[in-house]
């Protein structure tokens, strides 16, 4: 249901502002963002829409068609919600950050949230929710800032309110997305650029639905391993500020000090950054075969060096890499479950996807959910 209709049904009046923001696929650059590296993502043509209107009291009320649970909070007492209402924390965290950034809000709001992006589908519905709620609330209370600052604010909400130490990839892509383009982020500079996609590329997402029980803590563990590797490398090169400042050769030279685990993590990050750079050249020259091979190489590095893949993702990649019409494929996003992205030409279709799903279903006891998606536009206010 559209968020305007949901709003009217839920609150008995029309919304004052509506904003939409897309989900994303991590195109290439796995776990490079919080290491100051390069990453490329694509905004998809599915996302989250938030409709809002002011209330007369100090309450903050959230309705979602998906969650079917009302979440409530109030100005002056904004703390993370728990249990069934915790889905609203992304928007509540954004509101909290908006107040910290100087937005004035004397009274509360009602918000209705609808999505064409299933939660947990590996396409970053959380960033889409942060960006769409932020733009809608900013418009409602008269607060403006640059696109880059919207991305940063969404990330702060996720880091400090939801408690996930993610980088700027998801929010940056949701904010800067543009149809037929990738968003390239230099995470050290926090600069955002758009790179034109060659024509005729399609994205297929195979979501395993597998979620490692320790997902959040494993993400945090990898984050910490990268920071530990950096500290060791700084002993011989104090000017390093992040792993992106060093190279695979330096990492190899320091492997005794780093030990086997941190060597693998740091090698993955530094080599992956080089792959992102190479990808830009290959897309520029239109060499889709080589670009596809680089995507698959990225997956292998995540699997072997960063160790954030799972057998379900590896199986999908093995099936897809040789399927007709597929340029390349890899796990997309944090890993430890989640989804594989396949980049294909227009000839890859439902039947090909069904063949892969069937093979997967025979090996594992469930089918993946499959989405075909194209690139889409970034976060925006709707009239
Ligand atoms: C998740 C995080 C991103 C990024 C990826 C891995 O999607 O939210 O910030 O770290 O994992 O590249």
**Basic shape:** globular
The succession of helices and strands, N to C, reads HEEEEHEHHHEEEHHHHHEEHEE
Mean pLDDT: 95
**Count of distinct strands:** 12
Helix-strand category: alpha+beta
Query: Which residue ranges are poorly predicted, with pLDDT under 50 across at least 5 consecutive positions?
Result: none
Estimate percent helicity: 40-55%
Largest sheet: 8 strands, mixed
Instruction: List the ligand species.
Output: alpha-D-galactopyranose
Tell me the CATH architecture of the largest domain.
Answer: 2-Layer Sandwich
Radius of gyration: 21 Å
Spatial separation of the terminal alpha carbons: 17 Å
CATH C-level class of the largest domain is Alpha Beta
The portion of residues forming beta strands comes to 15-25%
Number of helices: 11
Could you name the CATH topology of the largest domain?
Ribosomal Protein S5, domain 2
User: How many separate domains?
Assistant: 2
